[in-house]
Each structure stands twice: as structure tokens, then as C-alpha cells.
Amino acid sequence: PTSNCNRFCRAHSFHPTSTLPWNNKIYTSETMQAREDFEKYRNDLLSRIPENVKSHFHDGGFVQWGEGGWSPVLILGPFDVEPGPVRDQWVELFEKSQETKSEMSCLVYWYGTNNPGGAYSF
Questions:
Q1: In this predicted structure, which of 26-30, 86-90, 96-100 has the lowest mean pLDDT?
Q2: Left if phi > 0, otherwise alpha if psi is -120 to 50, otherwise beta: which for 15?
Q3: 72 to each of 8, 33, 59, how far by Cα in Å?
Q4: Structure pTM?
Q5: Is the backbone of residue 103 left (phi > 0), alpha (psi -120 to 50) or beta?
Q6: Pairwise CA distance, residues 24 & 88, whole Å
Q7: Strand ranges inside the chain, DSSP E
Q8: Tens of pLDDT along 3-47?
Q9: Integer angstrom CA distances of residue 37 from 34, 43, 74, 92
Q10: Contacts from 94-101 at CB under 8 Å and sequence distance 24+?
């Protein structure tokens, strides 16, 4: 038997100009240029990050935190967080570490935090 999904997928075209409700974004020359500029920026920044730093992105582990015991963490890269203060701080720390030839702190996400604003640290 054919599932509803299979029948639906065969009946619709999934190309970028599709008019399906979940693909109704209109791309203008301005949005396409902004996307291209971001991709250039992202690729440039990622190409400058040393492999020994990038290789730890998405590593999980446990960190002892005060008297509370061990907490699970995930090491993140600059584009694993939304644009804003955390990403900006990561980029600032990276640029400073490149200038001073010093080791950079990791960006970590603390699992289980009750404070979304405090879920990240360096």
C-alpha cells in the first residue's frame, strides 16, 4: 500500500519555485545578495578557525560546576547559535586570540539550565 506521504510527494513538484505553503518565501535580489554576503562571511570565518578548534565543535562532555557536581555541556561553534551577543562575543574572542596567538576559550551550552539566557558560557 502507498502511504499518503508518498502519494502527496509524487503529486507535487519540490523545486525552489514551488508554491506550497511551507515554501512561500519570495527571494529578491536584496535577500539573495544578503544571503551571499553572509555565506562569504561564514566561509571566511570558518576557514580561519584552526582545525584543532573546529574538531571540538559539537563535542559533548561533563564539567564540574561548583558544589553542584557535574553538568553536561556541548561545545559549539559560532554558527551554532543565533545571531546576537553570544555569537558576537565568540567572534571577538576569536579575533583577539588570533592577534595575540593565544588559546581561545570554548563556547559551551549547558544542558538542563533553567535560564535560557544563561545557557551559554566561555
A1: 26-30
A2: beta
A3: 42, 39, 11
A4: 0.69
A5: beta
A6: 31
A7: 60-64, 70-76, 107-110, 120-121
A8: 333 333 333 333 444 444 455 566 678 878 888 999 999 999 999
A9: 5, 10, 29, 19
A10: 94/45, 94/48, 94/49, 98/48
